[in-house]
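Field: COMPLEX_INPUT
Field: COMPONENT_COUNT = two
Field: RESIDUE_TOTAL = 616
Field: MODE = joint
Values follow.
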Amino acid sequence: MSQIITLSAAELAAALRAGEVTSVEAVQAHLDRIAAVDDAESGVHAFLHINAEEALAVASEVDAIRAAGGAEAQALHPLAGVPIAVKDLIVTKGQPTTAGSAMLKGWMSPYDATVIEKIRAAKLPILGKTNLDEFAQGSSTEHSAYGNTRNPWDLNRIPGGSGGGSAAAVAAFEAPLALGTDTGGSIRQPGAVTGTVGAKPTYGAVSRYGAIAMASSLDQIGPVTRTVLDSALLQELIGGHDPKDSTSLPEPVPALSDAARLGAAGDLTGVRVGVIDELGGEGYEEGVKARFEESLELLKARGAEIVTVSCPHFKYALSAYYLIMPSEMSSNLAKFDGVRYGQRVLPESGPVTIERVMGATRAAGFGDEVKRRIILGTYALSAGYYDAYYGSAQKVRTLIQRDFEAAFQSADVLVSPTSPTVAFELGAKIDDPLAMYLNDIATIPANLAGVPGISVPGGLSEGLPVGIQFLAPAHEDARMYRVAAALEAALEQQWGHPLLAEAQDLESAVAAAKEGKN
Amino acid sequence: MSAISRDDVAHLAELAHIAMSDEELERMAGELDSIVDAIASVSEVAGENIPATSHPIPLQNVFRDDVVGQTLTQEEALQNAPDAQDGRFKVPAILDED
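Field: COMPLEX_OUTPUT
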């Protein structure tokens, strides 16, 4: 395994600036790693599309600018030349965007998402597009129309979802950086179960323009990385106001990487960390609880004051989420009708009218989970049920926001396990939608309230990663990065290395899996 | 008693424009029933005096100048269409023959 791919994005950026490595070498090292471990049949299968040619072209452009020196080299973005992977929910010119759905097989976006424009302007080579549950609906990546992604820690287990591809790519050293989207935990939960870092910024802190909408009042693009500092650096790059997204915050991007560096330096004196009483206990695995308790001790040792807070309405968050999200997505996905883009399927028999073509197109183009949620959303919005379901869920949303407000009176940040369990085996929950939904029980409240959240590796339980989640008040993303970086530094000091150093030898594991299939 | 019957699902599927087989309708009715059972608890706490929140971070008066911004060319707009003719999207009959 090449040394280049084990560097963090910040380390690789420094090596590029120092001329110790070229961007072309960095991109090629990651492409080689992808070729070695990402096989769709037996490997990680994090990528749906590899963008090798363009990535190498951008890399050689950065190398040429650096070699020439002068003002243009000085003006390069600090992350210029560092490769990145993009969740296939985010639209990109020149590469297909599928959203993990058969509906959009081969679809080529005529425009770039705002985050992609920023990445191109900063000259980060885009390695390719990563796998996800169809239209970002799921917690395991098993609902992708293109086959599931596998967890680099154990190829028989789920990598989380919906952004399992981005998290697995970063965990497998196939990319130092990736973009994800988080509607109910789709960045944080995959981060937790793959031993990586995933951050959901404050709602509106990063433009959603060009992220194929699932639930517009909950969706948020965010960074997927191996270190807290890398997430902060990436959010600084992709964040900021965008006139093309009327929900984007009209405020400058805070100094997030400074906050991460401050946190890593260690001192948390005076910082109040609130343990959420309702996110723990029953339903959480013993190993998850043990790593969580140890993390609290480490935070205390660094000077933090640990307090307990109660958020009594969080127990209704999952229910409110499974009314609001399907309602919004059933409306957002109405545009996939076989008229302007995507597949068109004709009915097998009977008259060929537009109504019947839509019915056949959507029957063939959507998978079971998407259909289930569209029907659920249509139900929650239909006459006679609207007040009882969608209306009540919106009121619960207010109660959850009030819970957060009260909790942040006595705590600067809140902390909980990210996910109640470690990665489960592929297929274990695929036939039980309710069991699958419970994976997001700790991540959903942040989306309902719009507050930022981050998951950092907290150690292992039975050989599999456990995630620790920090939540901060809206607009206070910097605070979350500071405390998360402090825990990361304390844990790595204790372990003597990053958690991913304990992962299996992936190239051997993939070779063995291939052998087993033959 | 089941809250969502097979006929309810058939009606919802029609509203949502998704053709479903009898087997799918049966299965979906069972699944949705247990999901709705699990999430109906929201009405327990949603008192009348609690305002609804539709958006996590409310912004007001988000306007832009009324000028033409970036738009797609006709060619770009049609490049992914399943069917097109004379610079327009082409669709099957909008009305039934009878």
